TrEMBL record:
It comes from the Eukaryota. It holds the Pfam family Hist_deacetyl. InterPro entries: HDACs, His_deacetylse_dom, His_deacetylse_dom_sf, Ureohydrolase_dom_sf. This is Histone deacetylase 10. GO terms for biological process: epigenetic regulation of gene expression. Transmembrane segments: none annotated. Signal peptide: none annotated.
Length: 154
């Protein structure tokens, strides 16, 4: 599973929280801040990515791009991270594999930040090749992880 049930339950619970409760929950994550509408918006973002997969694979469109917020590439199975609640691209890739039987997927992540959530999700999966183009600056640029360097290969 790409999202633990605990992570999903925390996200759902924020819909009815007041500002103080939202701040307290948000403090458990790195660079993530909940709002009462975050869960709903994140679900719509995932849904948009899945609809795009359906449209491309069915031939309804030749190609596409899901410009969605919140983004997803930092999110991990058990935690929101870096403004990302759910890992939209990872979920879409797994969906394409399961629903359409795709055997090889390339994810090109062109962003100023490394999408460690996608890397962690697929580093043991030979059916998905993840390529991230991002700033690193000798581990000085967020997310400041050793695995964000050029020689990290899963």
């Amino acid at each position: 599973l790409l999202c633990s049930s605990e992570h999903l339950e925390v996200a759902k619970s924020t819909q009815t929280m007041n500002e103080e409760e939202l701040k307290r929950v948000s403090a458990n994550y790195d660079a993530f801040f909940f709002h009462p509408s975050t869960y709903r918006c994140a679900r719509l973002a995932v849904g948009a990515a899945l609809q795009l997969v359906d449209a491309v694979i069915s031939g309804k469109v030749c190609n596409g791009m899901a410009l969605v917020r919140p983004p997803g590439h930092h999110s991990q199975r058990n935690a929101a991270n870096g403004f990302c609640l759910f890992n939209n691209v990872a979920i879409a890739a797994e969906y394409a594999k399961l629903k359409y039987g795709l055997q090889r997927i390339l994810i090109v992540d062109w962003d100023v930040h490394h999408g460690q959530g996608i890397q962690y999700t697929f580093e043991e999966d030979p059916s998905v090749l993840y390529f991230s183009w991002h700033r690193y600056e000798h581990q000085e640029f967020w997310p400041s992880l050793r695995e964000s360097d050029y020689d990290a290969v899963g």
